[in-house]
Description:
A: seven-stranded mixed β-sheet
Amino acid sequence: MQRDAKIILIVGGRGSGKTFFLEQRLSKDNTIVVELIKTTRWAGYEKVFFDDLLTGKVTMKQLGNKNVVFEDATSYISSNMSNYLRRLITNSKQFGCDVWLVFHSVNVVPVFLWYMWNNLVLFKCAKPRETAQNADYIDEILQKWKKCQIAPPYHFEQIESQL
Amino acid sequence: MNIDEIINTPRRVVNVDEIQLPESMEITPNENGDNGKENGEKTDGENVQMSLVEVANMAIAAYNVIQTAIYKRIEPRFDASLTPDECKAIEPPLRAVLAQYNVQMSPITGLIVVVAGINVGKIMQIKMLRAEFAKKEKEEKKKEEEKKEKPFFMNDETTKIN
């Protein structure tokens, strides 16, 4: 049985265990990590600079059929992002990419992603606020958020969208 | 599907070679394999050989800001999508281009859109205007340096010393 490519949001505050969660699950062969700066995280994984993605050094076709992790997406994925990046995320299904977007809070997830996400993995983070876009899911998000807040470190909860 | 099910279920494989991207997205590095950056630094105003990739990105970013402003009828801020250095670089030539379209630019708040209809092609003129500005600045700097370097007795305007 095969499935379509997914858009997965990983949301959690600093040090909540997001990178560790992904490193445990994603294979090094099939994953590309998009970073702003070169870090010591993701040892053994293929890494690209976000700037290289935008300037064409790394093309969309090179990301095809892979897990693409946008580490620290809070910094560069917003409602005012470039069309190039927006198209990559919107057409990720056509490229066969699973897009993993790492945010620090539910409140910084851009508007357009609320219409396209498939899964949300929630760690300890700031209290989510209800907006027009996440209104359908906010009750479930708040419920799971409360569980994360009182749970031990690195605990996470999962939410699936109806899409 | 939860995360573990997603990871354990194989994804449908796509033939990416069949995908055709529009021309604006087929941005490739130049012949040297870089995109105009030296040692990871951006080209400054003195080097007018800005890479097409950088110009295209600045133009697209500026175009997005303007289009958002037109659509939302708000006063856009350039620094929303451009770095401070890019804002500084793009402001003088963009002001000249936008003047042709009756677009006024407030020096304090950024850009106030007065008329719509600015297309990316026109904004690409920024590259040429920027090059002209940079050339002028370079020439003026040269003149000033030449005046400073020459001692007064070497200056052609003074009388010769016997």
